[in-house]
Design a protein that fits this description.
It is found in: Cytoplasm. Its cofactor is Mg(2+). Belongs to the TRAFAC class OBG-HflX-like GTPase superfamily. HflX GTPase family. The chain is an alpha/beta fold and 426 residues long. The protein folds into three domains: 155 residues, Rossmann fold; 169 residues, Rossmann fold, CATH 3.40.50; 51 residues. The chain is built from 13 helices and 13 strands. It has a six-stranded mixed beta sheet, with helices on both faces. The longest helix has 31 residues. The chain is globular. The protein starts with 9 loop residues before the first strand and ends in a 6-residue tail after the last helix.
């Protein structure tokens, strides 16, 4: 939580269960909202939940439930109501009038946490862009949530200047930020090309927020690092790592690799953040190997795994080779957990104690050291699906499109040699 001398805001959570997703999934997301609000620095004092088929267009929840919520807010002296889904500007305005307190939605809470966690220039640019894209259609009818005098959650970072800029200036600022982030993407692309020229494999850590990715990276650097170390906060909180961390380590056998720690995923990650952080998340799509870190001690860890795979699908990175790490096994009562069927291999370890790290490093070294053979091949256009696999898992030096097919110069990994043999060009 943020260190502040101000009194903590008292929040009431509001949820709407429409039946569009299984009951247990909805409960998980709502419990996650509580963690987000507490991470943002507020005290959750109560919650109000309604079950109905569709949200009320004007107030999200029904008239009767709104009266009940207003009574709870007044009785408990709450000054913040947080809704579990994104609200329209009209809904925020109507809710604030009815409740006489600040109203925020799930997206604003996540954006607020990101605003407080960004440390690097790139991270701050990405958060500002996401906040401005979210706020632009909400400039009219600003209420308590947009007041500069109110302070507290939802007003940190670039949000503090919303009243001082008009739509034209915000659009211009958004354009400037996107231009700066395009330069960031070009810079990252140049770095990736240089790494490919030096043939240094890249291992990207992905996973649900608070799964222990940063601790795992810290432990790997402590044991195998070749350069500067990275501090491990050891804090058990959501989105503890926002700015990506990249380090070079030397695995057993002398194999050097680049390890990148990325921002954690979460259910219903706001699309504004996915778009703004695309330059960072592209590190995942371009990695040679993905290490999916899972908090095995979480009661719903399998659902969290599904969320991660969905985000990877959105980033067009689901075809990458994936290794699953069931982390925090020191907190798991069961002696055995099933393997992840979506990955090449499943490891069980504790990144905090270091147990199992050596076995993981040895396996990764062996996996990345599998010799690839350079070949020239000619694929007919009917082999389009196979071509996609080659691009995903092999290093392609060049490709030329001809009348009857595609001529490729590439490194072929062992698992594809037999499959590609008929298309080899002497």
């Amino acid at each position: 939580m943020y260190e502040t001398t101000a009194k903590r805001e008292r929040a009431v959570l509001v949820g709407l269960q429409t039946g569009r997703q299984p009951d247990f999934l909805w409960k998980l997301a709502f419990e996650e909202l509580k963690g987000l609000v507490e991470t943002a620095g507020a005290e959750v004092i109560s919650d109000v939940v309604q079950a109905r088929k569709y949200p009320e267009p004007s107030t999200y929840i029904g008239k009767g439930k709104l009266q009940e919520l207003a009574a709870v807010v007044k009785e408990l002296e709450a000054n913040l109501a947080v809704f579990d889904s994104e609200l329209s500007p009209a809904q925020v305005r109507n809710l604030e009038q009815a409740l006489d307190c600040k109203v925020l939605d799930r997206t604003q809470i996540i954006l607020d946490i990101f605003a407080g966690r960004a440390r690097t220039k790139e991270g701050k640019l990405q958060v500002e862009l996401a906040q401005l894209v979210y706020s632009l259609p909400r400039l009219t009818g600003r209420g308590i949530a947009m007041s500069r005098l109110g302070g507290g959650i939802g007003t940190r970072g670039p949000g503090e200047t919303k009243l001082e800029v008009d739509r034209r200036r915000i659009r211009q600022r958004i354009a400037d930020l996107r231009a700066e982030l395009r330069e960031v993407r070009q810079h990252r692309q140049t770095q990736r090309q240089q790494r490919k020229k030096r043939e240094i494999p890249v291992l990207a850590l992905v996973g649900y927020t608070n799964a222990g990715k940063s601790t795992l990276l810290h432990t790997m650097i402590e044991r195998f690092g070749t350069g500067s170390h990275v501090a491990d906060s050891g804090r058990n909180r959501l989105f503890d790592t926002l700015d990506p961390t990249t380090r070079r380590i030397e695995l057993p056998g002398g194999k050097s690799i680049i390890v990148t720690d990325t921002v954690g995923f979460i259910q219903r990650l706001p699309h504004q953040l996915v778009d703004a952080f695309r330059a960072t998340l592209e590190e995942t799509a371009e990695a040679d190997l993905l290490l999916h870190v899972v908090d095995a001690s979480h009661p719903e860890y399998e659902i969290q795994m599904e969320t991660v795979y969905q985000v990877l699908e959105d980033l067009d990175a689901s075809r990458k080779s994936i290794i699953t790490v069931l982390n925090k096994m020191d907190l798991v009562k069961e002696e055995w957990l099933p393997d992840d069927p979506c990955s090449e291999h499943t490891f069980r370890l504790s990144s905090k104690s270091g147990k199992g790290i050596a076995e993981l490093a040895a396996w990764v070294a062996s996996r990345l050291n599998r010799s690839a053979v350079r070949m020239q091949v000619f694929l007919p256009y009917s082999e389009g699906p196979f071509l996609s696999k080659l691009h995903a898992k092999c290093k392609v030096y060049s490709q030329e499109f001809e009348e009857n097919g595609i001529r490729l110069d590439l490194d072929v990994i062992p698992e594809y040699r037999e499959r590609i043999a008929p298309f080899k060009v002497n």
